[in-house]
């Protein structure tokens, strides 16, 4: 059974009592995936709700030629599979592991029964989905902008907010994305991302001396937003 502390750390279950958390943990089936694995595939039946217990994943659309477009990134404590939870619709996107991951899977009817008994979970789901929608709208607005600096600045700020840790010279982004992955998220090319990152480094906005980007001037990045 999943450790109830792992479930307690999932924000949408924060208001549950220990007995309720124990019940939920008992309903979860734990699955582990290697980096690069597909956890779910777009178009498959959506019949389960997934909790990300460890690691990070990308929500992606995969074109027939194999090219991937990253729609968003989820981290430990996030969830996916909620869209098909209520209407059993096919998966609207694929989920790909960016690191080794561990997920807790709960069948559709079991999570619906839990929500019915605990309305606070439903309210928390709505809040989380509203936050995701706002972030998606902001990213779409930036992606449609002709200014690549604005697009990349927003992406770096989002990564800082979700995967940042304090560093001596700023905020280190713990999630390591390739330049191609960043390009896929903001609708540009790997070469353009590389050039723009180097310009940010020259301007002392970021530090790339290690394998993890460090944002050294968050305020400057914020001035670049559309």
How would you describe this structure to a colleague?
- This protein is α+β, with helices and mostly antiparallel strands and about 230 residues long.
- It has eight helices and twelve strands.
- The strands form three sheets. It has a four-stranded antiparallel β-sheet with strand order 1-8-3-6.
- The chain is globular, with a radius of gyration of 19 Å.
Number of DSSP helical runs: 8
Terminal CA distance reads 46 Å
| Total domains | 2
The level-1 CATH class of the largest domain: Mainly Beta
Please tell me what the overall shape is.
globular
Superfamily (CATH H level) name of the largest domain: Jelly Rolls
How does the major sheet shape up?
4 strands, antiparallel
Total strands: 12
Task: Enter the CATH topology name of the largest domain.
Answer: Jelly Rolls
Mean pLDDT across the residues is: 86
Helix content: 40-55%
At CATH level 2, the architecture of the largest domain is Sandwich
Strand order of the largest sheet: 1-8-3-6
Radius of gyration, rounded? Answer: 19 Å
Question: What is the strand content?
Answer: 15-25%
Q: Would you list the SSEs in sequence order as H and E?
A: HHEEEEEEEEHHHEEHHEEH
Sum up the structure in keywords:
alpha+beta; Jelly Rolls; 2 domains; four-stranded antiparallel β-sheet; 12 strands
In brief:
Helix content is 41%, strand content 23%. With 226 residues, the protein is α+β, with helices and mostly antiparallel strands. The longest helix is centred in the middle third of the chain and has 25 residues, at 119-143.
């Amino acid at each position: 059974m999943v450790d109830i502390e792992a479930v307690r750390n999932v924000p949408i279950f924060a208001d549950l009592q220990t007995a309720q958390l124990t019940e939920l943990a008992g309903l979860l089936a734990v699955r582990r995936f290697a980096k690069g694995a597909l956890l779910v595939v777009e178009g498959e039946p959506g019949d389960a709700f997934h909790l990300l217990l460890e690691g990070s994943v990308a929500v992606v659309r995969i074109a027939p030629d194999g090219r991937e477009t990253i729609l968003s990134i989820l981290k430990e404590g996030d969830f996916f599979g909620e869209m098909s939870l209520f209407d059993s619709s096919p998966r609207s996107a694929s989920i790909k592991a960016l690191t080794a991951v561990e997920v807790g899977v709960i069948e559709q009817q079991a999570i619906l029964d839990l929500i019915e008994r605990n309305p606070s979970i439903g309210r928390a789901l709505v809040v989380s989905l509203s936050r995701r929608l706002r972030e998606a709208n902001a990213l779409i607005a930036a992606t449609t902008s002709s200014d690549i600096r604005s697009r990349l600045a927003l992406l770096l700020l989002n990564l800082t907010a979700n995967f940042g840790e304090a560093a001596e010279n700023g905020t280190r982004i713990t999630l390591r994305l390739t330049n191609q992955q960043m390009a896929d998220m903001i609708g540009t090319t790997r070469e353009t991302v590389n050039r723009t990152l180097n310009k940010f480094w020259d301007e002392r906005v970021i530090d790339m001396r290690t394998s993890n980007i460090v944002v050294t001037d968050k305020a400057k990045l914020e001035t670049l937003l559309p």
